[in-house]
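Students often ask why inverse folding is considered easier than folding. One informal answer: many sequences map to the same fold, so there is more than one right answer. In these notes we will look at a single instance of the problem. The structure comes first.
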């Protein structure tokens, strides 16, 4: 939103996104904001402001007519000269007296904060809007008059019931961010090809899991309209097609890409193009059928910036060696593999080839029965998750292994009957979840007094 409002711009060769991240860290460093949630790379996802500091900031903001936080009174009572308005409570749908011709930002989050009729009135009066964030609101239709907002740079519809976008969306030629995450939109409109300044598209649709290894989100169709969006940095999530790779050829600024519905026939052309993107740092791939083998034998990793890799689909160890470990400068810090196959111990293999891993998740992976976290390896690993690995019978933590790990989750490993040796050496551990293990494991855990041995402020869950 800072970028959309023009508060953050290019500086010293850094993109606005990088500059905004630096400003955020600076505000945290000076205790103006407090991190609440961070991602796997330590970047702040959500934060809070100290209540006293917030009151001071709001009073200054309102006095200068910079903005109003509409938490405790109706929008209709706000000053018509206000430029930024945050409405988090119910707005009177029957009143239409509010006119805010100077409004640049409208944030109406939460149910009943705004209706479609109210939006039409806002669009008619506030034509200079740059930011429109309606996430979690109860709207189900975006008025066609949204196309009149010629200055709009940010459109957020996350977690709404919207099923489609009006054709007038093509008029929003200044739009930089389009957030459709968790809506009912299944297809990108043709008019999106006109939005040449788009930098971020979020369009994941979450679905209910029917099996432990099943997908949790689904992409949208409409990839053929993407070839004109040469400034696009984020594309999450799009369904693959035979021509999908060609549509991505001109998108040289891509940083984050999530692809759904990938078939074996797509792989060769698609990944030869995707893995050459010079700035690609995050790649999430989901196969059409998670048991279908992804054909990556002839594909090599050439992107040197890749830090996050998620693969949901059937890959053999030999393909993994060729696909992941041959990168010229391997920087992968986050790895999530589902339904991959290893002939040997995946932990030892990954420890040797991905020394900078910070988060590792293996789900429904085939491997040998005895897993070993090798000595003095995974020195930067913060989170380790092993799920639905029915063949695993034993886990050993050698001296000096995973010294920085804070979260260890063993979920549905029913053949593990003994407490992992070396568990007491994990001094940095803050979260230990042992779920779906054998009944013998729970018996040994209780008999050995492991709850008492693992002292400190540790979140422990042990369930059969």
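Output (designed amino acids):
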């Amino acid at each position: 939103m800072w970028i959309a409002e023009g508060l953050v711009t290019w500086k010293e060769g850094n993109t606005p996104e990088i500059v905004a991240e630096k400003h955020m860290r600076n505000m945290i460093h000076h205790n103006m904001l407090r991190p609440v949630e961070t991602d796997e790379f330590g970047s702040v996802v959500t934060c809070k402001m100290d209540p006293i500091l917030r009151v001071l900031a709001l009073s200054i903001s309102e006095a200068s007519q910079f903005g109003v936080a509409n938490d405790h009174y109706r929008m209709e009572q706000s000053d018509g000269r206000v430029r930024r308005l945050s409405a988090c409570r119910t707005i009177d749908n029957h009143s239409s007296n509010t006119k805010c011709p100077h409004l640049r930002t409208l944030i109406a989050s939460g149910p009943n904060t705004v209706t479609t009729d109210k939006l039409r009135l806002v669009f008619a009066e506030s034509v200079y809007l740059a930011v429109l964030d309606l996430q979690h609101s109860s709207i189900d239709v975006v008025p066609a008059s949204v196309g009149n907002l010629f200055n709009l740079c940010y459109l957020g519809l996350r977690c709404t019931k919207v099923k489609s976008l009006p054709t007038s969306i093509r008029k929003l030629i200044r739009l930089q961010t389009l957030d459709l995450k968790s809506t009912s939109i299944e297809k990108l409109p043709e008019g999106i090809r006109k939005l040449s300044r788009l930098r971020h598209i979020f369009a994941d649709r979450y679905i209910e899991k029917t099996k432990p290894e099943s997908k949790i989100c689904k992409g949208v169709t409409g990839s053929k309209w993407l070839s004109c969006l040469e400034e696009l940095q984020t594309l999450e999530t799009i369904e693959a097609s035979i021509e999908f790779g060609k549509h991505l050829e001109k998108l040289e600024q891509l940083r984050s890409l999530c692809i759904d519905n990938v078939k074996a026939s797509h792989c060769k052309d698609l990944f030869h193009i995707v893995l050459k993107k010079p700035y690609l740092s995050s790649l999430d791939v989901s196969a059409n059928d998670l048991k279908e083998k992804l054909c990556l034998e002839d594909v090599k990793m050439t992107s040197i910036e890749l830090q996050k890799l998620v693969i949901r689909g059937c890959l053999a160890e030999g393909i993994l060696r060729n696909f992941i470990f041959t990168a010229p400068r391997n920087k992968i810090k986050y790895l999530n593999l589902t339904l991959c196959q290893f002939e040997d111990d995946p932990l030892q293999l990954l420890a040797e080839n991905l020394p900078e891993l910070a988060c590792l998740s293996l789900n429904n992976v085939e491997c040998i029965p005895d897993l070993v976290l090798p000595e003095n390896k995974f020195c930067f690993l913060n989170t380790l998750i092993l799920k639905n690995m029915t063949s695993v019978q034993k886990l050993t933590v050698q001296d000096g292994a995973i010294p920085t790990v804070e979260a260890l989750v063993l979920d549905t490993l029913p053949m593990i009957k003994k407490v992992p040796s070396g568990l007491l050496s994990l001094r940095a551990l803050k979260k230990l979840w042992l779920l779906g293990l054998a009944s013998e494991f729970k018996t040994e855990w209780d008999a050995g007094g492991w709850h008492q041995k693992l002292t400190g402020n540790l979140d422990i869950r042990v369930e059969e």
